[in-house]
Structures are given as C-alpha cells and as structure tokens.
C-alpha cells in the first residue's frame, strides 16, 4: 500500500507567472492521475493534500472541484473525494466518446496545424520514447496523453480541447484499471506516422491512422477486470521533500 506523500510528482512544478495556487495543485493532481501514480478509487484527503501543498483546504476543494468537472475525481457528499473508478459500462462509453472526439480533432488538425505545433509534437514523441526506453511508464503515459492534448490544440477549437483534456485523463484511469499484460508502449511509431499524415494534409490517411491507434489502445483493455486502490501519501512525496 503506497501513500499519498510519495505519489505526487517526480518533477515538482513551481508556480509560474499567471498561475494561481489552485492551478499548481490542479496540475500536480492531474499529472499524477495521467501517470497512474493516483490509481482509480484513491481517496483524496483534503487535510493530507493541504499539508502536502502547504495551502488552505479551500484551495484544495477548488482544485478537486475542477477535476470533478472533468470527471476524473468524484466528490462524495460527507465522504470526501476519490479518484474516479469507471465501471465497465462507463469505460465503454468513455472510449466511444474518445473515439468520436479524436477523429474530429484529427480532421481539424490537418486543416489548422502549424509547422511549429507539429515540431513541438515531434519533440514530445521523442521525450515519450525516451521515457519508455528508460522504463518510466508513468511519465511515458503522461507524455502520450499530452501528445493527444496538443493535437486538440492544433484543432483550434476550444470546446474540443476542454473535452479532450477530460477524456485523456479518463482514459488513463481506464488503462490503470483495465489494461492487460505488461506495460509496453505501442504508440510511438503510431504518433510519428500520424504527425506525418497531418503535416502532409492527408485527412483520410490521418483519420484512418487515428482510428487504428485507438483500436490498438482499446485492444489492450480487458473490460471484465477491476483494480485495487491506493492511498494518498506516496504520490506527492517530492513536494514534501522540497518543503524542507
């Protein structure tokens, strides 16, 4: 059983210009979910998080509310917040929504992507590759999620971007809960080839590649299994270390 303190982030974010304390806390928890350091059903104690981040419980509540609106955290009346643990039926619905969203995003990205955005995505794929090569599955998964969020930015459609952030993090929960077999990355070449199609302006090829990519991810999920939960205090250990 791990604890919340050690589960926070290996790369502690610091506040940057324009970021509020709410933003910093939100980003840490969001990344911890993407990296599967906060697995489904983990209890998110306001008291523990307030201590870890050295902020008020009011700030923690606002960050958790924001995550609940993205459907990756569930706030239970009188029982506190937990990381969402989708049921099999919910998992199927999430993945279907992801499929519809990604195909629309890909089509728009072909029309709107800039050279600079594509170059940025290629650098992200390189980092993703390096993370998996070094056995850092959590970081690799987070970078893979960031790749898909960057595609949504290319689409130049704010509502799609907001939905994509939620669906990417929800998909990370599905992978944590339902993935079968060993952790292995199968998407690196798929990401690069997809970028090639987007850069060439080939809508049909790009959407076809995205569908294949999503099918590949879906094929690794066993929607008959469930997973265990964790507690909070290992996830954010680096933040606590930096407090001293």
TrEMBL record:
Q: Which residues form the HTH gntR-type domain?
A: 19-86
Keyword Transport among UniProt keywords? no
Q: Which GO terms describe its molecular function?
A: DNA binding; DNA-binding transcription factor activity
Keyword terms: DNA-binding, Transcription, Transcription regulation
Q: Does the keyword Transcription apply?
A: yes
One Pfam family matching this protein: FCD
Coiled-coil stretches are: none
Family annotation (InterPro entries): GntR_C (IPR011711), TF_FadR/GntR_C (IPR008920), Tscrpt_reg_HTH_GntR (IPR000524), WH-like_DNA-bd_sf (IPR036388), WH_DNA-bd_sf (IPR036390)
Question: What is the top-level taxon of the source organism?
Answer: Bacteria
Stated name of the protein: GntR family transcriptional regulator
């Amino acid at each position: 059983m791990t604890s919340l303190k050690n589960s926070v982030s290996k790369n502690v974010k610091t506040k940057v210009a324009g970021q509020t304390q709410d933003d910093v806390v939100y980003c840490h928890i969001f990344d911890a979910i993407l990296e599967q350091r906060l697995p489904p059903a983990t209890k998110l104690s306001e008291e523990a998080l307030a201590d870890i981040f050295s902020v008020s419980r009011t700030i923690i509540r606002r960050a958790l509310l924001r995550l609940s609106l993205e459907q990756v955290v569930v706030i239970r009346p009188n029982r506190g917040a937990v990381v969402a643990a989708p049921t099999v039926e919910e998992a199927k619905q999430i993945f279907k929504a992801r499929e519809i969203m990604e195909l629309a995003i890909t089509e728009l990205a072909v029309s709107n992507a800039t050279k600079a955005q594509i170059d940025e995505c290629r650098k992200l794929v390189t980092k993703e590759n390096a993370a998996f090569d070094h056995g850092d599955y959590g970081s690799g998964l987070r970078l893979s999620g960031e790749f898909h969020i960057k595609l949504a930015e290319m689409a130049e459609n704010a509502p799609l971007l907001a939905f994509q952030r939620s669906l990417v993090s929800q998909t990370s929960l599905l992978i944590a809960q339902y993935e079968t077999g060993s952790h292995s990355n199968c998407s690196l070449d798929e990401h690069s080839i997809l970028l090639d199609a987007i850069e060439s302006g080939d809508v049909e090829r790009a959407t076809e590649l995205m569908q294949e990519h999503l099918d590949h991810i879906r094929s690794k999920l066993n929607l008959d299994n469930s997973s265990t939960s964790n507690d909070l205090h290992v996830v954010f250990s680096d933040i606590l270390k930096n407090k001293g």
